[in-house]
Each structure stands twice: as C-alpha cells, then as structure tokens.
Amino acid sequence: MDTPANRLGSDVLARDDLRKALDEHDFAAAFTLIKKWAGLSQNKIATACDLTPGKVSNIISGQHQITSMAVIRRIADGLGIPGALLGLAPRSWESLEQETAPPPKEERQPSEEVPWRPDATVGLADHLTRSDLVLNRRDATRALSAAAVTGAALLDTLEGWLQPASADSRFRRRGRLGTRDLDDLESTARTFRAWDRQYGGGLRRKAVLGQLNEVASALNERQTVPIERRLYGVMAQLAGTAATMAWDAGQQRRAQDYYLVALRSAHAAGDTAFGANVLAGMARQMLYVDHHHDALELVRLAQDSVRDTAGPRLRAMLHTREAWAYAAMGRHAAFRRASGQAGDALSAAEQDEPYWISYFDTAELAGVTGGRLLDLARQDPRQHADTAAKQIRTALDQRGPEASRSHALDWIGLAECHFLMGDVTGAVESTHHAVDAAARTQSGRVRTQLAQLYPYTVGRDVPGPLREVRDQIRERLAT
C-alpha cells in the first residue's frame, strides 16, 4: 500500500486527547479533533476513509459507532494513523516508510549491522539507553510508529548467535567491581524483571534503562574475567526487561533493538539458556505483528541452541511458542502436538531452574494455551470458545491478582470467550473483573486487549448490563 495521501502530522498524532480517543475507538472525538487540528473537512475524512460524508457526520454526532475492524483498518490506512495507536498490527505502509525514510544524522548504524563482538554490544547498549532517556514527545511518537524488522533482514543478523563469542581485546582502564557489587546488580535486575511482569513499563522503564546504561559503562572498564562474565549476564537480563517493557508499550522497533542487545549480551556471557528465552520473546513479537513463519524460525533457533541443555520449564515454554505459531498458521494438528509436548515437558519441572523461567508453571501453560484457543475461537467459536474458556479458568484458579498483568489478560480473554459463546451474563461478570484487574497494572497490552472488548458492548438494543460494562471500559481507558 502507498503512503496515505491524507496522513496526519506527527504533532497531531502526539496529542494526548487524540491518542486517548484512538485508544478507546471513540471516533466521534477522534474525527472532531482531526477536523480541528489537522484541518481536514468531513468530506476529506470521508474520502480518505472510504466512508460517505453522511456517515462521518453521524459518527461525529454520536448517532453511529464504529465497531467493524475492517472499517477501523480503513481509517488507519486512509489517515496514516499507526496501527499501534488503534490496537492493530503495524500497517503495510509503515514498513514502506521505514525503508524509504533517511536515517537521522545523529543515529549510529542500526543494531542489525553491529558485529557480534562484546565491545560492539556494549556500544549499542550505551547508545540505545542514552537516546531513550532523552526521548522527547515527537521522537516518542516516531518510535511508536517504527515497525520491527522482519524476514531475512532479521533472521540473517542472528547467525552470530551460533558462533563462539570473541574476547574483548580493547585497551580499558581497570575496573573495581567485586562479587558483592555483582550480587547487588543481579538482585536489582531480578527486581526489575518482577516489576515488568506485575506492572508493565510506565515510569519504571526509565529506571531499567538507567541501570542498563550504568552496566554498559562498567563494561567499558576491564573487570576480572568472572566479574565481566556476570556483568554481561546482568546486561542481558536488563536489556530483556527493557525489551518487554517497550513491546508492552507498543514500541515494536525499540523492543526489537533491546531484544538484540539482550541476545548479544547473553552470547558474551555464554548463557545459551537465557539467549533461548530472548529468542522466544522475539518470536512472540513476530506473532503479534503477524509474521508467523519468522516466529517459527526464531523458536527453532532457540530450540536448536539448547536442545541438550534446557531445563523442563524452558523446553515447555519454547513448545508453547511453537504451538502459538502453528495455531496462527492454521495448523491445528501441529498446534495440539506442540501443546501436548509443552505439558509433557512441564510435568518434569524442577525447582533448581533459573529464576527467570520460574513463572512458567501449570497456570502459565493454561493461560497461554487458552489464549491460543481464543485466537482460534475468533474464527470458529462453536468449536474452540468453550475449550478456551476452560483453560483460562484454570489459569485464573491457579494464579491470583498478584500476577497483575497476566491476571488481567486472563479475565479479558475469559470475557471474550463468553461474548463469542453468546453468554451475556458470563461476559458481563468477567468484564467487571477484567476492568478491576486492568486498574492494577499500567500495561499497555492490557489496555489494548481491554479496548478489543468494547465492540462487543455496542449496537442497537444493548441490554442494560452491557451498557454498564461499556461505560466501565470507557472510563478505565480514559484514565
């Protein structure tokens, strides 16, 4: 698709009121703001979005609400609104603009061109964190719309993961970090990872970036070999957390950059298990942007690198990523096979596996499996919605509100299952729980998923209970 002719300016897209309206799919407010700040008439909006002027007028006056995802996609493409602002995958024209736009003069070479050397990895981490910590609103909007690299451009850059790590031969002044310092740094990285799982990003993301920058600075000094190895491990952990926080906020390209820093750092640390975990995170990102074959390639690369060393939990998690890709590709038999392998692997789980994989238990397996069955249920509710609901209920029974982000996503998923089954009572009850759970996390992904429940609550002759939860959803998304 060509670049939209009526693309909104970055200053318009950066407005908080417009972003809130787009996030809530409140097109009455969005079109009004676009008229005011972008100078587009109702006729121009109608032409750009392939709507009639009368339909646009009815939308602005509140007489018509847009619930069709096909129409929302037309609005995104017609007005040049990045998909992430509407809860969509990046639009095709976003990647075209990414390819053709000249790089800013101050930018260093992109992460996929940085050689797999420890010093280059340190330099990349330092550059990314410094640029992120001084990001202004305009640059933040640009980061939100930047698409992730896919296909051969991504996969070919990962070949260095399979090669032995090289030594850092730079001349560096002597460092003074000791074992106790590394104990503290590892504890901090662990705390930050727990923050991400519970709350998402938000203000905590800058704390992670600041600590990551400090670790990169420490690696510009010559530490003892054991300390340096552990430092690279800490950098991998922090970069992995920064990646998931950026991904949770919809910053796809930034997330990918931090995933690559995490993978390179794990490579320098000799930690193939955590590297496989990073590759699984990259695969999840590809699944969310509908590049299923890329996701499967990343999972297989992860599995190959730890085939003889991975613990049961890590093997189980990798099988669920594999199953996710198969489900997205419509390969139902392969999905069931990989899901079964995940369950078999998890049944042998032990207590002495790394802390970062300890979250993957029977509740997580049920939640992930339920989520994939929900994906299938959107295409065939009669066959999959009830099974998806049972899996998600299992997850909810086994992990409580302390799981925060996962807990909220479970309730949102269960509510959608009830909507798909036509169970209004169950949908209303689950949506009440979902809104309450969403209030306890700052996760952008939770907000996006909650917004996807909204279309189920609109239309003619909507029962009173549905109108009530619709208002709850709008109120939660407005905060």
Q: Would you mind describing this structure in some detail?
A:
This protein has 479 residues and is mainly alpha-helical. The protein has helices at 10-13, 16-23, 27-38, 42-49, 53-61, 69-79, 92-100, 118-133, 137-145, 152-155, 179-199, 204-218, 225-248, 252-269, 272-288, 292-305, 312-328, 332-346, 362-377, 381-398, 405-421, 424-438, 444-451, 464-478. The longest helix is centred in the middle third of the chain and has 24 residues, at 225-248. It is globular, with a radius of gyration of 23 Å. Mean pLDDT is 87; it is low at 99-110.
Distance between the termini: 34 Å
Categorize the overall geometry. Answer: globular
Order of helices and strands: HHHHHHHHHHHHHHHHHHHHHHHH
Number of beta-strand segments: 0
Sheet with the most strands?
none
What Rg, in angstroms, do the CA atoms define?
23 Å
Q: What are the SSEs and their pairings?
A:
Blueprint: H1 10-13, H2 16-23, H3 27-38, H4 42-49, H5 53-61, H6 69-79, H7 92-100, H8 118-133, H9 137-145, H10 152-155, H11 179-199, H12 204-218, H13 225-248, H14 252-269, H15 272-288, H16 292-305, H17 312-328, H18 332-346, H19 362-377, H20 381-398, H21 405-421, H22 424-438, H23 444-451, H24 464-478
Helix pairs in contact: 2-3, 3-5, 4-5, 4-6, 8-12, 8-14, 11-12, 11-13, 12-13, 13-14, 13-15, 14-15, 15-16, 15-17, 16-17, 17-18, 17-19, 19-20, 19-21, 20-21, 21-22, 22-24
Annotation keywords:
479 residues; mainly alpha; 24 helices; 0% strand
Quick summary of this structure?
The protein has 24 helices and no strands. The chain is mainly α and 479 residues long.
